[in-house]
Amino acid sequence: MEFGYYLPGYARDISRPVQHLYRELIREAQWAEELGFTSFTIPEHHFTNALMHPNALLTGIKLAEHTKHARIVTSTSILPFRDMLQLAGEVAQADCLTNGRIEVGVGRGAYKYEFARFQKDLEQSHDVFRESLDLLVKLLSEEDVSYDGEFYKIPPTTIVPRPVQKPHPPVWFAAMGAGAIDYAVSLDLPVLTTPLRNPVEMVKMQAGAFQESIRKRDKPHLKLSMLVMIFVTRSEEQKRRVLQDAMDRHVRFLDVFSSEGHVKGGNITPMEPDITLEDIERNLMIGSPEEIADKLGLYYEQSIDEMQLNFSFGTPHGEIMNSIEDFMTRVVPQFR
Predict the structure, then answer these.
(1) Whether this model's pTM surpasses 0.85
(2) Range list of H helices, 217-284
(3) What is the pLDDT of residues 53-72, one digit of tens each?
(4) Any idea what DSSP says for residue 10?
(5) How far are the Cα atoms of 35, 142, 163, 244, 320 from residue 315, in angstroms, in the given order?
(6) 3-state secondary structure of 266
(7) Nearest to residue 134, comparing CAs of 121, 119, 118, 152?
(8) Furthest CA-CA distance within the chain
(9) Which residues contact 25 (CB under 8 A, 6 or more apart)?
(10) In total, how many domains does the chain have?
(11) For the residues of 99-146, what is the DSSP string, one character each?
(12) In contact, 310 and 40? CB cutoff 8 Å
C-alpha cells in the first residue's frame, strides 16, 4: 500500500490571511514527501472556507516547485463546472510545468451550493460529466480533435502545449457507489473513492465493488485510492479535541452537501449533526498509534492500493506535522 497526502485547504478562521494557510500546506507536503508519502491530492471547491482550492492545478504547480517527485493529483476536477477545451489546455500546461507529475482526478461534483452558483443543472450533471470526460481524454491524447456531442460541438482543434506524459496524464475517476465504481472500471480508469464519515461497512462495500469489477472486466492493472480522515494523537486530551474538530468539519460539510447551503462571507454555517462523537471516533482513524494501526489493518485486508490521508480538519499546523511523522514512524512500520 502507498500513502498520499491530501491537502484540503480548510480555512477554519477565514479572517486569517490565506497565504499563511498555503505556506503551511507546502511545508506539510514537503514533510510528508520526506517521510515517504508518494503523492499529493488536491480538491477543487468553490465559494466557502471548507476547501480553498478553486483551481487545483494552480496549487499543484506551486507544490511541484517545492517538492521533488511525489505525484500530484487533482481530487477532483469537477467537469460540469468547466469548459473542456480550457481545462485540457490547463492540464497539458501544468503537466509541462511540473515535468510530467500531474494526474487528473475527475468528478461530477456533489455540493448543491456550488451547482446553484455556477447555474448548472445537478440532475443533468451525469450526462454532462460523461461527455466531458470523453472529450477531455481525446483532447489530451489526440490532435485535430473534432467532436459532435450533445453539449460540445467543436471543429478540428489541437490543444497546445501538448502534455509531457503519453498518451496523456493519468486520469482517475471519482466514484462512491458500486455502480459508479463499475462504470469507472468499464472505462479502464483507476478509482478515487471515500467512505466520508460512514462506518467500515462502506469501506468494505467500496473495496469489494472495485475488486469484483476488475475481476469481472479483467482489469487487474487498475488501482483503487481511498480518502480517509486520520490523526495520530499523543494524549487523550488531544484526541478529544481532534474528534471535536472532525465533528465541526463534518457539520459544515453537511450544510453545503445536503442543502442549498447557509454561507456568509465564505463561512459555512454548521448544521445539526447527523452522527455522534462516538460515531466519529468509531468510523475515523483518530487516536493513538496503536488505535490507528488496529483500524489501518482493515484497509490492508481490503487490498486497497493507496490511501489518501486527510490530517487537516481544523487542528493547528504544528500538531499536523507531528501527526504526519507519528503515522510514518510509529504506525506504518507495523505493516512492513
Answers:
(1) yes
(2) 236-258, 277-283
(3) 999 999 999 999 999 999 99
(4) -
(5) 20, 45, 37, 10, 7
(6) coil
(7) 152
(8) 62
(9) 7, 9, 59, 312
(10) 1
(11) TS-EEEEEE----HHHHHHHT--TTTHHHHHHHHHHHHHHHHH-SSEE
(12) no
Distance CA 113, CA 14 (A): 18
Q: What is the secondary structure of 33-47 as a DSSP string?
A: HHHT--EEEE----S
Q: How many residues does the chain have?
A: 336
Of the chain, the percentage scoring pLDDT greater than 70 comes to 100
Residue that is written with C-alpha cell 468510523 in the block: 283
Assess whether pLDDT exceeds 90 at residue 331. Answer: yes
Residue with cell 465504481: 181
Q: Print the domain residue range for 322.
A: 2-335
How many C-beta atoms surround the C-beta of residue 30 within 10 A?
A: 16
On the question of pLDDT at 117 being above 80, the answer is: yes
> Can you tell me which residue has the cell 447557509?
262
- Within 10 angstroms of residue 336's Cβ, the number of other Cβ atoms is 5
Is the separation of the CB atoms in 96 and 164 below 8 Å? Answer: yes
Any idea what the CATH number is for the domain that residue 154 is in? 3.20.20.30
Give the integer Cα–Cα distance in Å for 37 and 34.
7
Give the strand pairing for 71-78 and 306-310: unpaired
Give the closest residue to 266 by CA, choosing from 9, 50, 78: 50
Q: What's the pLDDT tens digit per position in 32-49? A: 999 999 999 999 999 998
| Strand partners of residue 226 | 193, 307
Strands 102-107 and 71-78 turn out to be parallel
The residue whose grid cell reads 500538531 is 319
> Model confidence over 285-305: pLDDT tens digits?
999 999 999 999 999 999 999
pLDDT, tens digit (0-9, with 9 covering 90-100), for 219-273? 999 999 999 999 999 999 999 999 999 999 999 988 888 777 889 999 898 889 9
Residue 201 has pLDDT above 90, yes or no: yes
> How far does Cα 127 stand from its chain's mean position?
22
pLDDT of residue 277: 96
State the cell numbers at 62.
Answer: 506551486
